[in-house]
Fold Tellurite resistance protein TehB.
Amino acid sequence: MIDSSYWDAKYDVDNFIYTKDANRFVKEYCQPIIEKIGKSGKVIDLAGGEGRNSVWFAEQGWQAENIDFSGKALSKFLAFAEERRVAELCFANRADATGFESVLMPVDIGVCAYLQIPQPDLFDALDNLIENIRRGGYLMGVWHARENLETGFGGPQDPAVLPTASELREFLAQYPLDIEFLGNRDGQVQTKDGLKPSTTLVLLAKLR
């Protein structure tokens, strides 16, 4: 496992650094799938950190596996799940995104939200995630887009960890996926001075 000390230190605070609210794009794109499948669904939340998205899925009645390499983040996730009374539906899996073994696979949705890592590693992580999604299931992704460097606020400032829609489309062409949406959306970043605009790359694809 690669060194997680930076993230353990970052998450070692009393508050939730990314809030306890599920990402709005995850909710927007996954809610219709949840309604269609019902409460029998399973999801992998890859690099899910403190578990805001995982707990939201569990609150919808889904089994949710948060895969992250920070033990501190996963401890906060499990405590959050207890707080929201959905602990029985939540699973913590400490592993690297590029080499994890899921405890819930195959899942109905694989979520990759804000895994901002160099492109070769991101593609390895997505390859691993796709392998754990059932046929007919969905791949859902959210990232700070590379265009955010010019048109948005916040997020990483290294273009090497900021994907583009065209790069993702080219990579995903090798998989039996029907892309339902892949493009930039107007997002928002919470700052001490209020909400600032950001450019967010969003993906939703269905596995044939």
